[in-house]
Amino acid sequence: MFHALHNDALGKLILRLTVAGLLLPHGLTKLLNPGSLTWIGDTLSAQGLPSFLAYGVLIGELVAPLMAIIGIQTRLAGLLMAANMVVAIFLAHMHQLTEFTSNGGWALEVQGLFLFGAVALVFLGSGRMAWRPD
After folding, report:
1. Residue 2 binned pLDDT confidence (cut-offs 50, 70, 90)
2. Average pLDDT score over residue span 38-64
3. In angstroms, rounded to a whole number, what is the distance separating the alpha carbons of residues 107 and 54?
4. Measured between alpha carbons, how far is 106 from 127 in angstroms, rounded to an integer?
5. Is 20 in contact with 28 (CB distance < 8 Å)?
6. What is the three-class DSSP state of 106?
7. Mean pLDDT across 32-52
8. What is d(CA 29, CA 11) in angstroms, rounded to the nearest whole number?
9. Contact 13, 129 (CB under 8 A)
10. Dist CA 108 CA 97 (whole Å)
11. pTM for this entry
12. Residue 6, pLDDT score
């Protein structure tokens, strides 16, 4: 009965579309609102890092998700999205790392799902349902 539900390629497609499709609007928002890039640059500078690295968020939240959605270099796209999430957690969410919400959830659930979903893509690749399967 459950053998009919065994479809690795479809599972990988769903993972790619979910992680990348939900991360992409964050990148689009940053592209359309340059003030957010300024905030990221200022935050990087406060950590002693060059502010121009803020433009890396466009790679991690715009380019990489598009790569994953299409299915081109999905493992690399996953790595870029995961790196983006590590930096985002470091810059904006470290104070929440051990916090929980009032209903018992981890304060960084969304960030965690993006991070570990992207890491899963690194290990799983695109599957057959991709422009260039890897």
Report:
1. confident
2. 95
3. 24
4. 30
5. no
6. strand
7. 93
8. 28
9. yes
10. 7
11. 0.93
12. 85
